[in-house]
Input
Amino acid sequence: PEQPGLAFRWAMLLTAGSASSVVASSDGERAVLGDGNGHIHMIDVPACDANTDADADPARCAPAWVFEHPGGRLLGTVALDADGTVYAFTN
Output
C-alpha cells in the first residue's frame, strides 16, 4: 500500500498570532480560527486551494471574512456547526 504523505498547501498570515485551533467543517469547505486580538477568521478552503481567494500568492490564503469580536480575546477554540454557524467563547 502507498504510504500517506504530507505536503504544504498554503498558509494564512495572522498579525496577532493564533489563539485557537483551526476547526474545519465536516465537508472540508470551510475552516475557522481565532487570532490573538479576538478576531475570528473564516476560510473558504476551496478558494484557497484554487488560489481564487483575495491573496494572489498561491502559498498564502486570505480569509473569506474576519469578524472583530466585541468581547475581546477568545477563551478557547471556536466551534463550527453543520449550518456554518460559528460559536466563540469570551470573558
